[in-house]
């Protein structure tokens, strides 16, 4: 998958629609402030025309357009992207739940996400939670999760463990239990 899309060995990952509430503009602002030794490209998986152009324009203005890589992989290729990413960024303002966050946790990737909406629940104690309107906080989170190896290991282990409560087996057991309690 890396070869197919000519991706670098190390990158950050964003997976989601390219729309305002997903806050990719905030990610670009945060990336623009990263120190040189921490700068990694961002692989962007998602669709959206108008917002994508706004993101590209801001990245151009901040001098980091070359650090954004937009791709449209198949669903089957997503696990490889998650598993290769150094960091998953998802600072959305609002979500129904945040399935991409869980996909990242299952893949052993540290997650930087929002402290609002359903995202604290989706990420659990493993998520590095930030105010989605605060690019400086996002930047600090990126730096911490990319450079502090102890923190990375802690977040990866906690994330994988937390994600286990969302496996098909666990959810099926909970559903059967709920039906049984309703029938009793």
The description of the largest β-sheet is: 6 strands, parallel
Based on CA atoms alone, the radius of gyration comes out at 17 Å
- End-to-end Cα distance: 50 Å
Number of contiguous helices: 8
Helical content band = 40-55%
Shape: globular
Strand order, sheet with most strands = 3-2-1-4-5-6
Task: Give the assembly state of these chains.
Answer: single chain
Number of strands: 6
Regions with little confidence, pLDDT below 50 for 5+ residues: none
SS-based class: alpha/beta
Output the helix-strand order: EHEHEHEHEHEHHH
Strand content: 5-15%
- Average pLDDT, rounded to a whole number, is 94
Description:
The chain has about 180 residues and is of the alpha/beta class. Helix content is about 45%, strand content about 10%. It has eight helices and six strands, in the order βαβαβαβαβαβααα. The protein has helices at about 25-30, 50-60, 80-85, 100-105, 120-125, 135-145, 150-165, 170-184; strands at about 10-15, 40-45, 70, 85-90, 110-115, 130. It has a six-stranded parallel β-sheet, sandwiched between helices. Strand 5 (about 110-115), helix 5 and strand 6 (about 130) form a beta-alpha-beta unit. The model has no long low-confidence stretch (mean pLDDT about 95).
């Amino acid at each position: 998958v890396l070869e197919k899309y000519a991706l670098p060995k190390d990158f950050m990952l964003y997976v989601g629609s390219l729309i305002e509430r997903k806050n990719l503009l905030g990610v670009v602002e945060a990336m623009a402030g990263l120190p040189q030794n921490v700068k990694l490209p961002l692989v962007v998986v998602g669709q959206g025309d108008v917002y994508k152009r706004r993101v590209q324009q801001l990245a151009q203005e901040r001098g980091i357009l070359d650090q954004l890589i937009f791709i449209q992989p198949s669903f089957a290729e997503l696990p490889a992207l998650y598993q290769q990413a150094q960091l998953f960024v998802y600072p959305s303002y609002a979500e129904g739940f945040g399935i991409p966050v869980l996909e990242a946790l299952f893949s052993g990737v540290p997650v930087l996400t929002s402290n609002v909406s359903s995202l604290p629940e989706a990420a659990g104690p493993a998520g590095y939670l930030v105010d989605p309107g605060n690019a400086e906080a996002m930047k600090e989170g990126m730096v911490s999760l990319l450079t502090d190896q102890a923190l990375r290991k802690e977040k990866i282990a906690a994330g994988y463990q937390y994600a286990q409560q969302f496996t098909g087996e666990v959810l099926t057991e909970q559903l059967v239990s709920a039906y049984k309690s309703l029938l009793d």
